């Protein structure tokens, strides 16, 4: 891929599958390629080779909006601000339809915001980083997706809101049966996963069931016990 | 009730968001003539005898009432000059909905120059909304040059909300505001130009009274080869506060200039100016595209909300 004008291999031989209703947590060191992978999945970044399938449909050549309409929801790690746009308007755009005050309030409450105060707030510099992050998550929750991708949803969120967020992920995962890819360093989120994938230096270092990969996370290089079960690729 | 032709009705739909109706206090001017007008219990409209235009008297018992004074120019080649004076009594609470639309299907320039002067008493609350719009498939220019003079009395609040969204080939907007003790001013200016259109806006606010305050927000989008120039000026002649914020989105080959001027003549005057010009943020486009919008749709949503 192009990185600042130079050709670089940012992701190499990445191949994995997320089953219906499954929650995959991607973790690993900073700069290892996790966010790049998420951007490749939604179409913000293009890979030079490889294929991406969604429900058996080859979406490799789809651009961002086609992938979104095909059923991928994506929450940015650092969401952009929109001068002049209200929170309610953004949520309506995210839902793809007009939303009542009540519906918007419910969504905002789900991410830990005191809803009525925010409906007519502009998504500009008057909102804190934490508020922006929670609104960003609400934009993904505004619509049902086949696959939701969250890039470090915990960043910038206080502990109380984080607990609510965990609850929301559980709801998406267990009740709505939507597939989830969550990029995270947070232990609580990692422990919610069905499967865990560790990415470092653009490569998959480990991938497998939570119970197999979790014990190895603190010392991946030294771990031998899970190599067979989890497919550790040290 | 006067029957309006189709062109006038369509233009009025655009320049009056909530629709124009011949009820209450109103005055509709078409092609240099007042074609219908009405008074209400508290708002009286009188035709000037010495020059074209009207005097609007809003008494102190006016509470939450709206007065509509739209202008439509639908003849190609016409230059319409009008003087409208508003006398707003102490304690009045009123919304004045103005606006001008030019429909030009010919090859000659159509032009409207509206000179509006507001005399606002004490403890009044005034909201003035003005939308400018041009349409028609003629080659003749559509020109609007508004002049707005506002005198805001003690403890009064004045909201000036102006928008020029589409179809005006050339505009030079002159606004002068004089503010008395403890008065407040909120100005919101929205402007979009495209093609070879030009727009110039000069706003001067003189904060003369103690504890007066002003907030001026200007948002604009320049497309095509259009040229925009903003010259906001705040002069603090007393203990006061003023904040000017000019934001512009530049597209294509447009040119946008912002020339601020802030001047303090009192030690306790606090005046701030912020200005930014830039292209549409890529991250904003990407975010909206991840919601399923095409690039064109995303761009349009960003502009629409930015100007909202």
Explain briefly what this protein structure is.
The complex is a heterodimer of chains A (234) and B (308). Chain A is of the alpha/beta class and 234 residues long. Chain A contains nine helices and twelve strands.
Written account of the structure:
- The complex is a heterodimer of chains A (234) and B (308).
- Chain A has 234 residues and is an alpha/beta fold.
- Chain A has a single domain, classed as 3-Layer(aba) Sandwich (Rossmann fold).
- Chain A has 9 helices and 12 strands.
- In chain A, the strands form 4 sheets. A 6-stranded mixed beta sheet of chain A has the order 6-9-10-3-11-12, sandwiched between helices.
- The two termini of chain A are 23 Å apart.
- Chain B has 308 residues and is mostly beta strands.
- Chain B has 2 domains: 1-162, no CATH class; 169-308, no CATH class.
- Chain B contains 3 helices and 23 strands.
- Chain B has helices at 6-15, 282-289, 295-306, and strands spanning 25-30, 33-38, 43-47, 53-58, 63-68, 71-73, 79-88, 93-97, 100-103, 110-120, 125-135, 142-144, 147-152, 157-166, 170-179, 184-193, 198-207, 212-222, 227-236, 240-250, 255-258, 261-264, 269-278.
- The longest helix of chain B has 12 residues, at 295-306.
- The model of chain B has no long low-confidence stretch (mean pLDDT 96).
- Chain B is globular and about 50 Å long.
- In chain B, the strands form 2 sheets. In chain B, strands 3, 4, 7, 10, 12, 13, 15, 17, 19, 21 and 22 form an 11-stranded mixed beta sheet that branches. In chain B, strands 1-5-8-11-9-6 form a 6-stranded parallel beta barrel.
- At the A-B interface, helix 2, strand 7 and helix 3 of A face helix 2 and helix 3 of B.
């Amino acid at each position: 891929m192009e990185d600042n004008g130079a050709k670089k291999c940012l992701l190499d031989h990445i191949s994995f599958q997320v089953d219906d209703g499954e929650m995959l947590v991607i973790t690993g060191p900073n700069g290892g390629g996790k966010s790049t992978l998420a951007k490749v999945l939604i179409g913000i970044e293009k890979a030079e080779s490889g294929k991406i399938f969604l429900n058996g449909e080859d979406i490799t050549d789809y651009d961002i909006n086609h992938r979104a309409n095909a059923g991928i929801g994506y929450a940015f790690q650092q969401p952009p601000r929109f001068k002049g746009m209200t929170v309610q308007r953004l949520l309506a755009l995210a839902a793809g339809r007009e939303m009542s005050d009540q519906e918007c309030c419910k969504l905002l409450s789900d991410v830990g915001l005191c809803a009525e105060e925010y409906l007519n707030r502009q998504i500009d510099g008057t909102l804190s980083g934490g508020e922006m992050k929670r609104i960003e998550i609400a934009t993904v929750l505004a619509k049902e997706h086949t696959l939701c991708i969250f890039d470090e949803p915990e960043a910038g969120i206080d502990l109380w809101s984080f607990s609510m967020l965990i609850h929301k992920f559980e709801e998406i995962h267990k009740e709505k049966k939507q597939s989830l890819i969550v990029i995270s360093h947070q232990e609580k989120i990692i422990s919610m996963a069905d499967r865990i994938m560790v990415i470092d230096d653009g490569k998959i270092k480990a991938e497998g069931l939570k119970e197999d990969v979790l014990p190895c996370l603190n010392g991946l290089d030294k771990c031998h016990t899970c190599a067979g079960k989890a497919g550790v690729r040290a | 009730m006067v029957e309006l032709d189709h062109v006038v009705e369509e233009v009025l739909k655009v320049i009056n968001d909530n629709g124009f109706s011949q009820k209450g206090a109103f005055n509709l001017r078409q092609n240099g003539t007042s074609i219908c007008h009405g008074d209400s219990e508290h708002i009286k409209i009188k035709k000037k005898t010495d020059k074209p235009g009207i005097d609007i008297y809003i008494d102190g018992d006016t509470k939450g009432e709206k007065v509509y004074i739209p202008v439509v120019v639908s003849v190609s080649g016409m230059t319409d000059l009008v003087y409208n004076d508003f006398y707003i009594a102490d304690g009045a609470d009123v919304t004045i909905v103005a606006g001008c639309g030019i429909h030009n299907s010919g090859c000659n320039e159509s032009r409207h120059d509206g000179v509006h002067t507001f005399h606002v008493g004490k403890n009044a609350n005034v909201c003035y909304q003005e939308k400018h719009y041009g349409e028609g498939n003629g080659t003749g220019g559509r020109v609007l040059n508004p002049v707005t003079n506002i005198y805001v009395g003690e403890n009064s609040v004045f909201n000036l909300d102006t928008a020029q969204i589409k179809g005006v080939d050339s505009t030079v907007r002159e606004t002068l505001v004089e503010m008395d003790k403890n008065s407040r001013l909120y100005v919101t200016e929205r402007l979009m130009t495209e093609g070879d259109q030009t727009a110039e806006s000069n706003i001067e606010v003189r904060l003369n009274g103690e504890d007066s305050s002003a907030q001026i927000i200007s948002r604009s989008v320049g497309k095509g080869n259009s040229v925009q120039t903003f010259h906001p000026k705040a002069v603090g002649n007393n203990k006061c506060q003023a904040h000017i914020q000019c934001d512009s989105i530049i597209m294509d080959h447009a040119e946008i200039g912002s020339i601020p001027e802030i001047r303090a003549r009192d030690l306790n005057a606090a005046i701030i100016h912020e200005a930014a010009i830039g292209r549409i943020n890529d991250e904003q486009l990407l975010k909206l595209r991840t919601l399923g919008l095409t690039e064109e749709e995303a761009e349009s949503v960003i502009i629409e909300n930015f100007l909202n």
